[in-house]
Amino acid sequence: MANAPHEAMHRIFQEYPGLFSRLSEVLGVAFPEPTTTEILTNDLTENQPLERRVDTLLRIETERDGPFLLAVEAQGRKDPDKHASWAYYFSYLLAKYRLPTTLLVVCQDRATAEWAARPVPLGAPQWPVLTLHPLVAGPHNIPLVTDVAEARKDLALATLSAITHADNPDVGAILKALSTALRDAPETIANPIVELTAQGLGNRPAAQQWRNLVAVDLSFYTSPLSEEIRDEGRALGEARGQAKSLLMMLDLRGVVIPDEAREKITGCVDTELLDRWFTRAATATSAEEIFAGE
Predict the structure, then answer these.
(1) 130 shares a domain with 37
(2) What's the CA gap between 54 and 98, in Å, rounded?
(3) What angle do CA 144, 37, 157 make, to 5 degrees?
(4) Residues 7-48: pLDDT tens digits?
(5) 236 and 215 in a common domain
(6) How far apart are CA 225 and CA 231, in angstroms?
(7) Domain membership of residue 266 as a residue range
(8) Which branch of life, at top level (predicted)?
Protein backbone atom coordinates (compact mmCIF):
# COMPACT_ATOMS: atom_id res chain seq x y z
CA MET A 1 0.00 0.00 0.00
CA ALA A 2 1.37 3.43 -0.93
CA ASN A 3 2.26 5.77 1.93
CA ALA A 4 3.54 9.32 2.08
CA PRO A 5 7.30 8.56 1.86
CA HIS A 6 6.62 6.09 -0.95
CA GLU A 7 4.79 8.77 -2.93
CA ALA A 8 7.49 11.39 -2.36
CA MET A 9 10.33 9.10 -3.44
CA HIS A 10 8.97 8.79 -6.99
CA ARG A 11 6.82 11.94 -7.31
CA ILE A 12 9.88 14.15 -6.97
CA PHE A 13 10.91 12.92 -10.44
CA GLN A 14 7.56 14.05 -11.81
CA GLU A 15 8.04 17.51 -10.32
CA TYR A 16 11.74 17.74 -11.23
CA PRO A 17 12.53 15.33 -14.09
CA GLY A 18 15.91 16.99 -14.64
CA LEU A 19 16.91 15.53 -11.28
CA PHE A 20 17.53 12.14 -12.91
CA SER A 21 20.38 13.30 -15.14
CA ARG A 22 22.09 14.88 -12.12
CA LEU A 23 21.36 11.86 -9.96
CA SER A 24 22.78 9.52 -12.58
CA GLU A 25 26.14 11.27 -12.19
CA VAL A 26 25.98 10.62 -8.44
CA LEU A 27 25.24 6.96 -9.18
CA GLY A 28 28.15 6.74 -11.61
CA VAL A 29 26.09 6.36 -14.81
CA ALA A 30 26.05 9.23 -17.30
CA PHE A 31 22.68 10.13 -18.82
CA PRO A 32 22.35 13.23 -21.02
CA GLU A 33 20.51 16.33 -19.82
CA PRO A 34 16.83 16.24 -20.89
CA THR A 35 15.43 18.79 -23.30
CA THR A 36 11.78 17.92 -22.64
CA THR A 37 10.02 15.43 -20.40
CA GLU A 38 6.53 13.95 -20.61
CA ILE A 39 4.76 12.11 -17.81
CA LEU A 40 3.23 8.93 -19.23
CA THR A 41 0.46 6.81 -17.78
CA ASN A 42 1.73 4.52 -15.07
CA ASP A 43 -0.92 1.88 -15.80
CA LEU A 44 0.76 -1.21 -17.27
CA THR A 45 -2.35 -3.40 -17.00
CA GLU A 46 -3.25 -5.69 -19.88
CA ASN A 47 -6.75 -6.92 -20.68
CA GLN A 48 -6.49 -9.45 -17.87
CA PRO A 49 -7.42 -9.40 -14.17
CA LEU A 50 -3.74 -8.85 -13.20
CA GLU A 51 -3.05 -5.16 -12.58
CA ARG A 52 0.43 -3.69 -13.00
CA ARG A 53 1.33 -0.10 -12.16
CA VAL A 54 4.80 1.41 -12.09
CA ASP A 55 5.07 4.25 -9.56
CA THR A 56 6.23 6.97 -11.99
CA LEU A 57 6.89 6.73 -15.71
CA LEU A 58 8.61 9.51 -17.68
CA ARG A 59 9.52 9.89 -21.34
CA ILE A 60 12.68 12.00 -21.42
CA GLU A 61 13.96 13.67 -24.58
CA THR A 62 17.66 14.43 -25.02
CA GLU A 63 19.58 16.16 -27.81
CA ARG A 64 22.45 13.68 -27.92
CA ASP A 65 20.82 10.27 -27.55
CA GLY A 66 17.17 10.90 -28.34
CA PRO A 67 14.29 9.80 -26.09
CA PHE A 68 14.31 7.18 -23.35
CA LEU A 69 11.88 5.98 -20.68
CA LEU A 70 12.52 6.29 -16.97
CA ALA A 71 10.45 4.05 -14.65
CA VAL A 72 10.81 5.08 -10.99
CA GLU A 73 9.89 2.66 -8.22
CA ALA A 74 9.83 3.62 -4.52
CA GLN A 75 10.72 0.58 -2.43
CA GLY A 76 10.23 0.53 1.34
CA ARG A 77 11.26 -3.05 2.12
CA LYS A 78 12.72 -6.22 0.65
CA ASP A 79 10.14 -7.97 -1.51
CA PRO A 80 11.23 -10.98 -3.61
CA ASP A 81 8.05 -10.68 -5.70
CA LYS A 82 9.26 -7.31 -7.00
CA HIS A 83 11.89 -8.89 -9.23
CA ALA A 84 9.22 -10.48 -11.41
CA SER A 85 7.18 -7.24 -11.38
CA TRP A 86 10.16 -5.13 -12.41
CA ALA A 87 11.07 -7.54 -15.17
CA TYR A 88 7.47 -7.36 -16.38
CA TYR A 89 7.52 -3.54 -16.32
CA PHE A 90 10.72 -3.46 -18.35
CA SER A 91 9.52 -5.98 -20.94
CA TYR A 92 6.11 -4.34 -21.26
CA LEU A 93 7.55 -0.85 -21.72
CA LEU A 94 10.12 -2.04 -24.23
CA ALA A 95 7.43 -3.82 -26.24
CA LYS A 96 4.95 -0.93 -26.09
CA TYR A 97 7.21 2.09 -26.64
CA ARG A 98 10.24 0.56 -28.41
CA LEU A 99 12.52 2.93 -26.51
CA PRO A 100 15.54 2.40 -24.25
CA THR A 101 14.15 1.95 -20.74
CA THR A 102 15.80 2.52 -17.38
CA LEU A 103 14.46 1.38 -14.01
CA LEU A 104 15.37 3.51 -10.99
CA VAL A 105 14.56 2.17 -7.50
CA VAL A 106 14.57 4.69 -4.63
CA CYS A 107 14.94 3.42 -1.05
CA GLN A 108 15.11 4.93 2.43
CA ASP A 109 17.12 2.24 4.19
CA ARG A 110 20.49 0.73 3.32
CA ALA A 111 19.45 -2.92 3.60
CA THR A 112 16.60 -2.52 1.10
CA ALA A 113 18.81 -0.49 -1.25
CA GLU A 114 21.58 -3.11 -1.22
CA TRP A 115 18.99 -5.84 -1.82
CA ALA A 116 17.47 -3.96 -4.77
CA ALA A 117 20.90 -3.26 -6.30
CA ARG A 118 21.96 -6.90 -6.53
CA PRO A 119 21.81 -8.29 -10.09
CA VAL A 120 19.13 -11.00 -10.28
CA PRO A 121 19.39 -13.62 -13.06
CA LEU A 122 15.95 -14.59 -14.35
CA GLY A 123 15.31 -17.94 -16.01
CA ALA A 124 16.68 -21.43 -15.59
CA PRO A 125 19.91 -21.60 -13.54
CA GLN A 126 21.62 -23.31 -16.49
CA TRP A 127 20.82 -20.40 -18.83
CA PRO A 128 19.25 -17.21 -17.42
CA VAL A 129 17.37 -15.37 -20.13
CA LEU A 130 18.10 -11.95 -18.68
CA THR A 131 19.60 -10.31 -15.60
CA LEU A 132 17.60 -7.68 -13.72
CA HIS A 133 19.93 -4.88 -12.64
CA PRO A 134 18.14 -1.60 -11.80
CA LEU A 135 19.76 1.65 -10.82
CA VAL A 136 19.27 2.18 -7.09
CA ALA A 137 19.31 5.44 -5.11
CA GLY A 138 19.34 5.31 -1.34
CA PRO A 139 21.21 6.21 1.82
CA HIS A 140 24.20 4.16 0.64
CA ASN A 141 24.97 6.41 -2.34
CA ILE A 142 22.98 9.67 -2.11
CA PRO A 143 25.16 12.41 -0.57
CA LEU A 144 24.16 14.17 2.64
CA VAL A 145 23.52 17.70 1.39
CA THR A 146 24.27 19.71 4.53
CA ASP A 147 25.85 22.75 2.85
CA VAL A 148 23.45 25.60 2.12
CA ALA A 149 25.26 26.55 -1.11
CA GLU A 150 25.02 22.97 -2.37
CA ALA A 151 21.34 22.79 -1.44
CA ARG A 152 20.66 26.11 -3.16
CA LYS A 153 22.44 24.90 -6.31
CA ASP A 154 20.20 21.81 -6.60
CA LEU A 155 17.05 21.95 -4.49
CA ALA A 156 15.62 18.75 -5.97
CA LEU A 157 18.73 16.72 -5.10
CA ALA A 158 18.77 18.25 -1.62
CA THR A 159 15.14 17.18 -1.20
CA LEU A 160 15.94 13.64 -2.33
CA SER A 161 18.87 13.68 0.11
CA ALA A 162 16.49 14.52 2.97
CA ILE A 163 14.02 11.83 1.90
CA THR A 164 16.55 9.02 1.44
CA HIS A 165 18.37 9.92 4.68
CA ALA A 166 15.16 10.33 6.70
CA ASP A 167 16.43 7.87 9.34
CA ASN A 168 19.98 9.26 9.47
CA PRO A 169 20.93 10.91 12.79
CA ASP A 170 22.30 13.84 10.75
CA VAL A 171 19.10 14.42 8.79
CA GLY A 172 18.53 17.61 10.83
CA ALA A 173 21.57 19.20 9.16
CA ILE A 174 20.16 18.32 5.73
CA LEU A 175 16.77 19.78 6.61
CA LYS A 176 18.33 22.96 8.00
CA ALA A 177 20.41 23.47 4.85
CA LEU A 178 17.33 22.90 2.70
CA SER A 179 15.07 25.25 4.65
CA THR A 180 17.77 27.95 4.61
CA ALA A 181 18.26 27.53 0.86
CA LEU A 182 14.51 27.82 0.28
CA ARG A 183 14.41 31.29 1.84
CA ASP A 184 15.75 32.69 -1.44
CA ALA A 185 13.50 30.60 -3.68
CA PRO A 186 10.23 31.85 -5.20
CA GLU A 187 7.13 30.46 -3.54
CA THR A 188 6.19 28.50 -6.67
CA ILE A 189 9.46 26.59 -6.34
CA ALA A 190 9.57 26.36 -2.55
CA ASN A 191 6.03 25.11 -1.97
CA PRO A 192 6.39 21.75 -3.80
CA ILE A 193 9.74 21.20 -2.07
CA VAL A 194 8.21 21.89 1.35
CA GLU A 195 5.37 19.45 0.73
CA LEU A 196 7.48 16.70 -0.87
CA THR A 197 9.95 16.83 2.00
CA ALA A 198 7.17 16.56 4.58
CA GLN A 199 5.61 13.72 2.63
CA GLY A 200 8.92 11.89 2.28
CA LEU A 201 9.70 12.07 6.01
CA GLY A 202 6.35 10.47 6.85
CA ASN A 203 5.83 9.98 10.57
CA ARG A 204 9.52 9.80 11.48
CA PRO A 205 10.94 12.09 14.18
CA ALA A 206 12.59 14.14 11.42
CA ALA A 207 9.11 15.15 10.22
CA GLN A 208 8.64 17.27 13.34
CA GLN A 209 12.07 18.85 12.81
CA TRP A 210 10.96 19.83 9.33
CA ARG A 211 7.68 21.28 10.61
CA ASN A 212 9.61 23.36 13.14
CA LEU A 213 11.97 24.66 10.44
CA VAL A 214 9.09 25.49 8.11
CA ALA A 215 7.33 27.31 10.94
CA VAL A 216 10.41 29.48 11.61
CA ASP A 217 12.52 29.72 8.45
CA LEU A 218 9.65 29.63 5.94
CA SER A 219 6.92 31.34 7.92
CA PHE A 220 6.34 33.79 5.06
CA TYR A 221 5.28 31.05 2.64
CA THR A 222 1.68 29.96 2.12
CA SER A 223 2.26 26.29 1.32
CA PRO A 224 -0.34 23.82 2.64
CA LEU A 225 2.11 22.66 5.32
CA SER A 226 2.86 26.24 6.38
CA GLU A 227 -0.85 27.01 6.63
CA GLU A 228 -1.42 23.81 8.60
CA ILE A 229 1.31 24.78 11.07
CA ARG A 230 -0.14 28.28 11.44
CA ASP A 231 -3.62 26.85 12.04
CA GLU A 232 -2.21 24.54 14.69
CA GLY A 233 -0.46 27.49 16.33
CA ARG A 234 -3.66 29.54 16.40
CA ALA A 235 -5.62 26.61 17.85
CA LEU A 236 -2.95 26.02 20.49
CA GLY A 237 -3.01 29.69 21.48
CA GLU A 238 -6.80 29.62 21.77
CA ALA A 239 -6.70 26.47 23.90
CA ARG A 240 -4.11 27.97 26.24
CA GLY A 241 -6.27 31.07 26.66
CA GLN A 242 -9.32 28.95 27.50
CA ALA A 243 -7.34 26.89 30.02
CA LYS A 244 -6.06 30.04 31.70
CA SER A 245 -9.60 31.47 31.97
CA LEU A 246 -10.92 28.17 33.35
CA LEU A 247 -8.29 28.00 36.08
CA MET A 248 -8.78 31.67 36.94
CA MET A 249 -12.53 31.16 37.41
CA LEU A 250 -11.98 28.12 39.63
CA ASP A 251 -9.47 30.04 41.75
CA LEU A 252 -11.92 32.95 42.13
CA ARG A 253 -14.67 30.52 43.18
CA GLY A 254 -12.34 28.93 45.71
CA VAL A 255 -12.45 25.47 44.16
CA VAL A 256 -9.37 23.44 45.12
CA ILE A 257 -7.66 22.08 42.00
CA PRO A 258 -5.02 19.35 42.60
CA ASP A 259 -1.79 19.56 40.60
CA GLU A 260 -2.79 16.57 38.46
CA ALA A 261 -6.08 18.23 37.47
CA ARG A 262 -4.34 21.54 36.83
CA GLU A 263 -1.87 19.82 34.49
CA LYS A 264 -4.75 18.10 32.72
CA ILE A 265 -6.39 21.45 32.03
CA THR A 266 -3.24 23.28 30.92
CA GLY A 267 -2.22 20.35 28.71
CA CYS A 268 -5.56 20.11 26.90
CA VAL A 269 -5.61 21.41 23.31
CA ASP A 270 -9.22 20.42 22.55
CA THR A 271 -11.14 23.73 22.60
CA GLU A 272 -14.56 22.02 22.58
CA LEU A 273 -13.61 19.92 25.62
CA LEU A 274 -12.32 23.04 27.40
CA ASP A 275 -15.65 24.72 26.68
CA ARG A 276 -17.51 21.86 28.38
CA TRP A 277 -15.21 22.00 31.38
CA PHE A 278 -15.69 25.78 31.62
CA THR A 279 -19.48 25.38 31.66
CA ARG A 280 -19.29 22.77 34.43
CA ALA A 281 -16.80 24.89 36.38
CA ALA A 282 -19.47 27.57 36.85
CA THR A 283 -21.24 25.31 39.39
CA ALA A 284 -18.66 22.63 40.24
CA THR A 285 -17.37 22.32 43.78
CA SER A 286 -14.49 19.94 42.96
CA ALA A 287 -12.22 18.90 40.11
CA GLU A 288 -14.04 15.55 39.87
CA GLU A 289 -17.27 17.33 38.92
CA ILE A 290 -15.53 19.18 36.08
CA PHE A 291 -14.22 15.96 34.50
CA ALA A 292 -17.30 13.85 35.22
CA GLY A 293 -18.24 11.59 32.33
CA GLU A 294 -15.10 12.28 30.30
Answers:
(1) yes
(2) 17
(3) 5
(4) 888 888 888 888 888 888 888 887 888 888 888 888 877 655
(5) no
(6) 10
(7) 229-290
(8) Bacteria
